[in-house]
Amino acid sequence: MGRALLKRVLLLVGTMLLVSVLAFVAFSVIPGDPTSSVLGIEATDEQVAALRARLGLDLPVWQRYLRWLAAFVTGDFGQSYKFGLPVAELLASRAEVTLVLAGAAFVLIVAISLPLGLIAARYEGGIVDRIVTVLTQAVMSVPNFVMGIGLMYLFALVLHLFEPKYVPLSDGLGAHLRFMLLPALAVALPKSAMTVKMLRGSILGEMGQDYIRTAYSKGHSRSSALWRHVLRNAMIPVVTFLAMAVGDIMAGSIVVEQVFGIPGLGRMLISSIGTRDYPVVQAIVVMLASVVVVCNFLADLLYRVMDPRIDGR
Amino acid sequence: MMLSVRDLSVVFTDRGEPFTAVDRFSLQMDRGETVGVVGESGSGKSMTAHALMGLIRRSQVEVTGSAVFEGADLLTLPRRELRRYQGKELSIIFQEPMTSLDPTMRVGKQVEESLVIHEKLAPGERRARALDAMALAGLPDPAEVYRRYPHQLSGGMRQRAMIAAALVLRPRLLIADEPTTALDVTVQAQILETLKAINREQGTAILFISHDLGVVKALCDRVVVMRQGKIVEEGAADEVFHRPRQEYTKLLVASRPARKKLRGGGGDG
Question: What is the pTM of this model?
Fold first, then answer.
């Protein structure tokens, strides 16, 4: 277990490095220059050259990367070209917003899909199962921004249950979460549909296994066999699936932020790409990647706890 | 009479066509008796065992006839009441000990599961009874095996764990559905010895399902030979083995199937 853990941690760090290199290289090959957004298009060549030297943009890309990395590991994310503020300061509150949104979406996915998947599988072919199957099929194919617009239309314009005006955390956690519910739902619903489908299939697959026949032969009912044996085995692939879904959830959150006018990382990312504000883009990319990588790492640990056959490998 | 099966038939529908897997099977068994059911793959012997054990979904398969066990008809008993017999009065062990155990649960917990379902006991008491059953099933060092997972045991040990789980409540009848087919010949002989000892010492009746008449003869007093769902011959095990009346039975005596072919094979009819 210790060795396996160490291997995982190294892999985690390696992945992060790779992501940061890729982001850096990508911006060095696409056209565009941050100086024009800072100085305007009427700047003289001397002004541009001076600014490039000041920002270190005159150095070769690998030197710039090493400089950035050296600062990054000490916790210095650099300064935004455009705002002239430290990146950390600029992003802290926005990152919080996005993490709340993504976290809420994740909780919703689990809260929606576990009971539905269970019921659908337990009463396979029953009325609930058939409704769930049709619904998942329909919801799965809706992109989350369309889902966001749809939910907004329904709850704000038709039902008047939702005020489409952003409520920051400073107005109280309850009010903030109440606002976040709808955007989180927009992110969560399509993924929930997939999770329900996957869990239902996984449970039904396990229900046909020999060890469930053994459970019945000991006097288990269908429900008690489900709780005591099926669920744990059926959850193993679902945990992996949910961990992989974290990337999609982050991406979905960034898109849905635009629909609901939420001042999270998404807006910042898009505007920073436009102005070639490299330090900001780089920090956001690394932050998003780290959430995904860390969640996968946690899923891996959970997987080992759930499936004793993996242990020690 | 402990068990009296009369005209047990199992019919299921295969692509719209009815298929009779078991055709009017009848059998009487006394307490403590050992009876073998022999036949080739698809002869309906496993299906018979599963029907008696209540492991066939009645909604999908038509099961007719009667199987009166200690006064109650297992075939018509409501599910809820049937469950009171399953694992308590009658138990079953299967051909594949690997897949028949839950891979994510410790062996000891699986052995004591019937206790959890049927009796209210303190965890310490449960554990003690599980360890007893494991010793009875011939598992060396039960306390160690108790906290292992199935994949950490050999095939023979797994089957012994299955036997321990089946015997933990001292059932009157143990149905053994090809319990040694997936095992090496030496392990097979050891498991047979264990079953014999359990029958002798605990008085557990055993209904032993096998394709191998030789194995059945080693364990059972009586034998029933099945072919295509029907009983074609029955009698004392020695008698049937040494003086088979049917050509089919002669073939079963003569065939000593190569173990390699059978190992890892899936279920059979």
Answer: 0.82
